[in-house]
Write a structure and sequence with these properties.
Length: 125
């Protein structure tokens, strides 16, 4: 079993279900995405550049679906929030599966992928 699979299976509910669903949407929407396990969390890369990572922040009660270039997407997708005053990363906070608007999330994934493909690197700030 891959480390990323072990990570998901070791999560408690509702986090496990949320993360597995988000993972399936990402992998089905962007077949070119590469799933990696780094810094003890799952990352999703395109062309070796990080696009998204999933995390459960200490002391928080939600799954943090973090978009590395989220600052470039937050006007078009107001569901992205700036958690912990991050310079570039913006994220969606999911406490339940129902918190995820599937259609908007798929559109966000496509736009994030397009922007990342045009960028020289994922981290620019």
């Amino acid at each position: 079993m891959k480390p990323v699979d072990t990570y998901f299976l070791n999560q408690t509910e509702p986090y496990q279900s949320i993360m597995l669903y988000v993972r399936s949407v990402i992998l089905n929407t962007l077949p070119e995405v590469e799933e990696k396990y780094s810094y003890r969390i799952p990352f999703y890369n395109i062309s070796k550049k990080t696009m998204i990572y999933l995390n459960i922040l200490k002391g928080k009660d939600y799954v943090d679906v973090a978009f590395v270039q989220g600052i470039l997407l937050e006007k078009q997708f107001p569901m992205l929030k700036n958690d912990n005053n991050r310079k570039q990363v913006r994220s969606i906070r999911l406490k339940t599966l129902e918190d995820l608007d599937h259609e908007n999330f798929v559109a966000l994934l496509h736009e994030a992928s397009n922007i990342l493909c045009k960028s020289k690197k994922a981290w620019f700030i």
